[in-house]
Amino acid sequence: MQGKFDEAVKNYRQSLTFKPHDAYLVYYKLGNTLRLQGKLNEAISQYQKALKLKPNYTNVHYNLGLTHMLKGDKNSALKQYKILKYLDNNVAEQLFKHIHK
C-alpha cells in the first residue's frame, strides 16, 4: 500500500508543472495522500498551499482541521471549524463532531 501512496505523491508533484491552473486541487489531493501516510506536517503544508490559491475551499479547511486533530492540536482544528461555520455550516458540524469525540 505504501508504494501506491508514494507513486501518488510523485504523480501529484509532477502534475503541478503540467496543470498549474489546477494547483490548488493538486495541493489538496497531495495533502490527503500525505495525511493517509501519516505525514501530518507535510499534509498541513500542502493544505496551506491550496488555501493560498483558493481560500474558501471547504474541503481543504475540513481536512486541515482533521489533520490538526490527528496531531493533537485541538486549537488549530477549532480555528478551521470557525472558518467552516462561515463557509458551510454542515461541513463545520461534521468537523465539530471529530473535534469533540
Sum up the structure in keywords.
globular; single chain; 6 helices; Serine Threonine Protein Phosphatase 5, Tetratricopeptide repeat; 101 residues; mainly alpha
Protein architecture, described:
With 101 residues, the protein is an all-alpha fold. It has a single domain (2-99), classed as Serine Threonine Protein Phosphatase 5, Tetratricopeptide repeat (Alpha Horseshoe), CATH 1.25.40.10. It contains six helices and no strands. The chain has helices at 2-18, 23-36, 40-53, 58-70, 74-87, 89-99. 32% of the residues are buried.
What's the topology here?
Blueprint: H1 2-18, H2 23-36, H3 40-53, H4 58-70, H5 74-87, H6 89-99
Spans with pLDDT under 50 lasting ≥5 residues? none
Task: Give me the Rg, rounded.
Answer: 14 Å
One letter per element, helices H and strands E, the order comes to: HHHHHH
Quote the beta fraction: under 5%
